[in-house]
Structures are given as structure tokens and as C-alpha cells.
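Late entry, written up from scratch paper. The run itself happened at the end of the previous shift, but nothing got recorded in the book at the time, so transcribing now.
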Amino acid sequence: MQSQLSQYLPVLMFLMVTIGFAVGTLAFSVIAGKVGRRTRTKDIPYECGMVPEGPGNARLSVKFFLVALLFVLFDIEVVFMYPWAVTYKELLAKHFASVVGGMLSFMGILFVGYLYALKKKAFDWKS
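Output as recorded:
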């Protein structure tokens, strides 16, 4: 029977390979990066043949990110319905009212949250 410490040998080996890969990749990029010549044109951001005009980063409204978070929230909530439908397929025959009632209450809470977001105009990021 192996000792408990010898069971962690693969984990230690994996950690060493991971650290070695990260250090090796960084060292290679530093060595290979010094070979190339840097010119003023190469240091211009968004090098695509055109001279950049205006600021490099436009500021976005916070509401844009709020809409994105709400999308992710409602998307994840809908993802929970798929396993529910698969898992409770057999239970629907025996306990129809409790299974459907649970999902309807879940969807009702989602709908109330959606109405609240609509009332607060959270989906309109242009204003």
C-alpha cells in the first residue's frame, strides 16, 4: 500500500510541468521579442495601415453592462429548465401538480424580475 504522500506525486509533477511551461513561454517571448526591431510605426496602436484618430477607448454607459448582466442572469435561469424537464419527466406522471407548480412558481419569480427590470428601464442602455 502506498503512503499518502506518494499519492500526491502526480499532482506535484503536474504542478512542476505547469510552472515550467509558464516560465519557459515567458522566457521565450522575451528572448524572441528582443530579436525584432521596433519602429515608431510598429508602436502605433491598432496598426492596420491607417493613422489612428480620436481616443483609443470609447467610454460605454453603465447601463450597457447592466443589460449584459441581466441577459446572463435570465439566460442562466433558462438553462436550469432543461435539466428540470429531463429529471422530472418520470415524476410528471405521478406528481403532476407539485412538479408543474414548482416550475410555474420559478417562472413567476423570473417574470416578476423581468417586469421589474422593464419598469426600471434597465434594458434601455441608450438613455
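The helical segments are 9-35, 62-79, 81-87, 91-94, 96-119.
(Scratch paper discarded after transcription.)
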